[in-house]
């Protein structure tokens, strides 16, 4: 993957990677994460496509201004990001976890700018979510939980994978580095509390968004890890119910980041899907 660079998206200093040529694809990471979650994906996709990978506003090393952090707000940021890089063609949106919800929201708001969707262990298909994210919704406790702690960072990384060999010290150190970024708690907690509460992911935004998108029948690929500890794989069944036109793929012995844990297989499935919908 190319080295990340910075550009201004309006007043927001934004870290991103661009690579390759061809039809455009935009890769969106999950809550509290960064563009590094796509390090195994970018080279394979960039052999055939123009790939854009931003750190979303409020996350990674992108600025974290004091603004409302909502799904529509994050989708608008992606729109402004595409304008900043000069991309005007319809894109394939590939979103993991929170990034999948942002991708769906973007498609609902700007349908003319979307060619296809690839949703990777995406938020939006069920109430169940890891207890750590539910605890963040509790006032004061959520704020205390955001205090950087190497042990907590390592634990978070371990929860993302089924095979512990992927929870490397380097990934733990990067998670701790992200945890120490100024104003991270504000954006992280704002997004987490918009998406859900103690009982899990809010039903309101999920129902509204999936109903809007179901009518559009966009070419959609939905993939999941069978041992996902963050958003359980049972959500894939609901996803295929609300989007009956979608293609689905369940990766066995895989956690929340199949793009890393099953990189070769994942890349082949995504490239095949994009090629069929070019």
TrEMBL record:
| Ranges of residues in domain AB hydrolase-1 | 26-262
Query: Known InterPro entries for this protein?
Result: AB_hydrolase_1, AB_hydrolase_fold, Epox_hydrolase-like
What residue intervals traverse the membrane?
none
- Which GO MF terms are attached to this record? catalytic activity
Listed name of the protein = Pimeloyl-ACP methyl ester carboxylesterase
The organism is: Deinococcus hopiensis KR-140
